[in-house]
């Protein structure tokens, strides 16, 4: 396999974690990648860290926003410049394990899948593992409506065959993007082995349960245009699965 993977990494004030994120890409056993980091007017020294890496590694592409546009538009800007056959996502505080790209691309080749994902572990601010999320080996559009089983940091899709997918800014934009892909392809394939670390910090948006619930309902009704009863059916599944999603570390 020699197809290029474009890794989309928005960055804003993540000086504490960005180095660990970049290092996790540099340690990938699959070497054919470009890491597109887009800095959204950071106020800390994260841009200095990124520039240091980009100077020594030509596969790292740095884009600097002239004004703060938010994570969704930052991702879109990076996606527009992506040259890869595949597009993957890695936020600037998350981490990949070394065989992440290789194992997911191998699965995609073996199963002729246009989208893949993997299990992942959760970590805290000190990079200590706090829990894990194990995925099923197949996920359909209806499965994803019931619970967000595909972590964005593990998502890879074939942009050469599907075209590029972009983010809106209405909340849970990464979840909507994955729904849009699954509506096109039917089923995505997953690696059961945890291949990434998802960082959960105290001010993480994923902790705001009420806001997340509001966004989820709007996705069913406005984005997916589901009727009220069907929206309620999926919302109940999503709510239940949200409380049982992450397993605590043994």
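^ Assign residues to that structure.
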């Amino acid at each position: 396999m020699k197809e290029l993977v474009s890794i989309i990494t928005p960055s804003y004030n993540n000086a504490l974690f960005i180095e660990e994120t970049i290092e996790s890409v540099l340690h990938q056993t699959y070497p054919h990648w470009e890491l597109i980091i887009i800095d959204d007017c950071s106020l800390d020294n994260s841009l200095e860290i990124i520039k240091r890496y980009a100077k020594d590694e030509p596969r790292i592409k740095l884009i600097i926003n002239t004004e703060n546009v938010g994570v969704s538009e930052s991702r879109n800007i990076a996606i527009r410049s992506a040259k890869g056959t595949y597009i993957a996502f890695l936020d600037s505080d998350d981490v990949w394990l070394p065989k992440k790209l290789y194992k997911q691309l191998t699965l995609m080749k073996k199963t002729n899948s246009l989208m893949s994902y993997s299990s992942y572990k959760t970590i805290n601010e000190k990079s200590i593992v706090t829990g894990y999320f194990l995925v099923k080996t197949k996920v359909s559009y209806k499965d994803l409506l019931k619970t967000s089983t595909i972590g964005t940091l593990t998502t890879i899709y074939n942009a050469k065959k599907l075209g590029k997918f972009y983010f809106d800014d209405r909340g849970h934009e990464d979840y909507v993007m994955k729904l849009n892909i699954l509506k096109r392809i039917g089923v995505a394939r997953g690696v059961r082995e945890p291949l990434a670390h998802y960082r959960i910090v105290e001010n993480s948006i994923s902790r705001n349960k009420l806001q997340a619930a509001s966004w989820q309902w709007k996705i069913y009704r406005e984005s997916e245009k589901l009727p009220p009863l069907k929206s309620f059916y999926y919302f109940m599944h999503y709510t239940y699965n949200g409380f049982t999603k992450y397993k605590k570390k043994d």
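The domain at 5-203 is CATH 3.90.550.10 (Spore Coat Polysaccharide Biosynthesis Protein SpsA; Chain A).
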